[in-house]
Amino acid sequence: MGFYADSLPDFPWDSLVPARNRAAQYPGPVCDLTIGTPVDDTPAIIQNALAGATNAHGYPAVLGSTELRAAIGAWMARRGITSDVAILPTIGSKEMVGLLPSLMGLGAGARVGFPDVAYPTYDVGARLAGATPVLIDTDSDPASWPTLDLLWLNSPGNPNGHVLSRPQLRAIVAWARGCGAVVASDECYAELCWDVAEAPSLLDDAVCGGDPAGLLMVYSLSKQSNMAGYRASWLAGDPAIVLPIAELRKHLGFMMPAPVQHAMAIALGDAEHVSVQRDVYRRRRDTLLGALDSAGLVGDPASVAGLYLWVTAEGATSWDIVDACAQLGIVVAPGIFYGEAGDGWVRMSLTATDFAINEAAKRLERLPDLLKRS
Fold first, then answer.
1. Which of 104, 159, 308, 373 sits between 20 and 30 A of 222, alpha carbons compared?
2. Cα Rg of the chain, angstroms
3. DSSP label at 193?
4. Is the peptide bond preceding residue 120 cis, with omega within 30 degrees of 0?
5. How far apart, in whole angstroms, are the C-alpha atoms of residue 370 and residue 315?
6. Which residue stretches of the chain have pLDDT < 70?
7. Mean pLDDT for the chain?
8. pLDDT digit string (tens) for 74-113?
9. What is the pTM of this model?
10. E-assigned strand segments in 69-209
11. How many CB atoms sit inside 10 A of residue 128's CB?
12. Could you tell me how far CA 161 lies from the centroid of its own chain?
């Protein structure tokens, strides 16, 4: 018997176990800067909304409640998206990243592109569908890209924090419409901009000309609202693509729970808690950035948004930096997890506690001596 898992690469995080074990030997708490799962409380306004909606005796709508759809539409309008798009709540954004090629029927012979430094699930989704994964430097000129059936964008990017500008996005839309490709944009870090004013959406009227044909976006409240445990996300874009996917989900019973739909609608209407959480991440980011020079590390100057630092050290591989950090009780993610183009880099998450961030910043002063020995 064959299983889909047989076609997938090894789960990358398993190879980090030796570094975790080494970090655990440090005479002090481990500072885990790897996985980007929120550690701060879900805002009270959201918790209260969830609690107040628990009398959910009927099946929820696959397409979302009227309340939720209106809240999503209003949120998108504030981002410059006013065209006639279809909206579909999803159980987290990762499920759509992993399943979109299959839901679109992109099997053998289809080509699915994604950034050459990227979250691994884009690759997993292509392989699960039986399609061919294709690495794309999405910062480069689209005129140099091959023909694809589906292209994933990720702006702000995970892990590198790169942001695609409106001119870049317009060039990508023109390329896609010239070759018939569908473009899906993962924009879940859009509210976490640091050194850039904004991260434009692919569906922004000023990008797509008010025409969502062939264009999709996915968004999540996991990061901006600390709702990772709620699985509160959505897919929006071309109705000719989104609505058939919704029909499939009706058959499969993929429905966001009604209490989560209500909590999500309340969260989308409250900008204050997002601003508060953004300030928390900004402080943590500033703390880690301030430690890079003394640590012999250099941050990517194009890393201007998102939930991570993307850093390198001269002459060091990703694993050299990981191993040196582990000796200080700090665990970071090797850039090689995100593609061959990520070798020599590591990702540091801003989602660790204030204590872990501050402690890591102090310990990093001893990193240069350890890197010299590697």
1. 104
2. 21
3. B
4. no
5. 13
6. 1-13, 374
7. 94
8. 999 999 999 999 999 999 999 999 999 999 999 999 999 9
9. 0.93
10. 86-91, 111-115, 132-136, 150-154, 182-186
11. 17
12. 10
Please enumerate in sequence order all residues whose Cβ is within 8 A of that of 135, keeping only pairs 6 or more positions apart, or say none: 113, 114, 115, 116, 339, 341
Q: How many CB atoms lie within 10 A of CB 134?
A: 19
**pLDDT tens digits for 302-343?**
999 999 999 999 999 999 999 999 999 999 999 999 999 999
Phi, psi of 256 (to 5 degrees): -70, 130
What single-letter amino acid sits at 266? I
Biggest CA pair distance of the chain: 62
Residues 6+ positions from 157 with CB-CB distance below 8 Å = 115, 117, 118, 163, 306
Exposure string for 73-87, b = 16+ CB within 10 A, e = fewer: bebbeebbbebebbb
Helical (H) or strand (E) element with 234: strand 232-237
The tokens 């990702």 sit on which residue?
347
Identify whether the C-beta of residue 371 lies closer than 8 Å to the C-beta of residue 296.
yes
Question: What are the percentages of helix, strand and coil residues in the chain, rounded to 5?
Answer: 45, 15, 40
Two structure tokens written together for 33: 């800067």
Note the pLDDT tens digit of each residue in 178-195.
999 999 999 999 999 999
Give the contacts of 183 (CB within 8 A, at least 6 positions apart).
150, 151, 153, 172, 173, 176, 202, 214, 215, 216
